[in-house]
Amino acid sequence: MKHVIINLSPREKGSSKMLTNYFADRIRSEADLVDTCDLYSYLNEMDFILSKIKKSDCIIMIGPCYITSYPADTINLLNKMSSKEGVLHGQSLYGFIQGGMPYVHTHEHGLKLLQCFCEKEEVEYKGGYVMGGGAVLNGQALNKIIGAKKVVPAVNKFIDNIKNNRKSPEELYKNAAIEIPYVITKMMPVMMNKSIKRTLRKKGINYKVKSPYF
Question: Residue 111 and residue 114: Cα distance in Å, rounded?
């Protein structure tokens, strides 16, 4: 079976790139061929990626969550996949999205995007995986993530589902989600706001000025 893994992140050494290599290493075997490509290396040569997708039996999209979904150029890629005849021909498609926030519901829109795309195109959505806390890794090995004892086996199970071309249920990532104590949850926005304000002050931006957009 031929797999193509597409890294949707613009970061050359980020967590999505690490995960792309991690998935490729675990899937690749005598029976399973794996090709990888980075979307942002071929934004002006999209036909290169489309040719890999056309030759594949299974498409795996891995990327970060930017404001509730994948980076915007993912939409461009999906449009190109849809508009070029013969690129999609009944392949399986899996999505993996990771973000800084630990809660899976803040990142699930990315998977819904892929699911809706598959419902309208000649490709079968086989499920996805949401991983919170990916930004903390910053490209480090997966076993460095918070809650690794639950997360790593769940991610490996997701990869097994891909290798066996079977649907992967939402419960897999939801049961492995990092549980954050209430006290920490309450402290997080306070700490984040302080950090943002400190950064704005360093840049000479007065955050107290009324926004012209309101």
Answer: 5
Angle (deg, nearest 10), helices 73-83 and 46-54: 60
Query: Could you tell me the two tokens for 184?
Result: 């920490």
Provide the pairing of β-strand 91-99 with 33-38: unpaired
- How far apart CA 163 and CA 92 sit, in angstroms, is 11
Selection from 75, 87, 20, 92 nearest residue 50 by Cα? 87
In this structure, are strands 58-64 and 33-38 parallel, antiparallel, or unpaired? unpaired
Instruction: Indicate the residue type of 199.
Output: T
- Tell me: the pLDDT tens digits for 97-152? 998 877 888 899 999 999 999 999 999 999 999 998 887 788 899 999 888 999 99
Q: Quick one: 8 exposed, middle or buried, by C-beta within 10 A (0-12, 13-18, 19+)?
A: buried
Residue 71, phi then psi, degrees to nearest 5: -55, 150
